[in-house]
Design goal:
By secondary structure, the chain is α/β, with parallel strands linked by helices. The protein contains five helices and eight strands, in the order βαβαβββββααβα.
Amino acid sequence: IYFNNINGISSNEEVQGNMEFMQEKDADLWGWVETNRSWTEDQKHRTGSQGRQIFNKFKVEAVASNDPTIDRKQPGAACIGINGNNVGAVVQSGKDNTGLGRWVYVCIGGQEQQKLYVIVAYRLCKQSNPRDSTVNAQQKRLLIQQGEINPNPRKTWCKDMLKQIETWANHGEVILLCDANSGLTDKDFVPFVSSS
């Protein structure tokens, strides 16, 4: 397993170069966060095609927020890739269903109905002066549209991720690959770490 905050992918050539690097590292499963990509269906399809050329068997899942200011470059986002014979063991895959674009996952089935959930997640960083295109601004807008008053996207991430992990932990093992953009003493992150 390989995980990286990739800090932006600006072209399909960069996607290919990063996947070739994953091949060199012999990574069966990898996660990238802060891809800064809108991950349209076309982009996911192209990434899947590129992956199958490199790895033969390949599956990708990616997510960005549903913010209406969506563009080719969109701050935040996450992507998970799995290749080789492991692709056939994937029994489920998906993404954060809130539209906030915070995580993607695959569930790998094992013997005796064992399950392993691998989550690739990005928790936005603190913003003292958020601009319109920041992940903070995107998630605040979306949370307000969903009815939250005075949203705190970082705190909401912890609450929602913990709930998701608890759900999956009832059905199998969970591995979280995450850029939490905080230390273990962050007041909003401490309850998440101590609970999970």
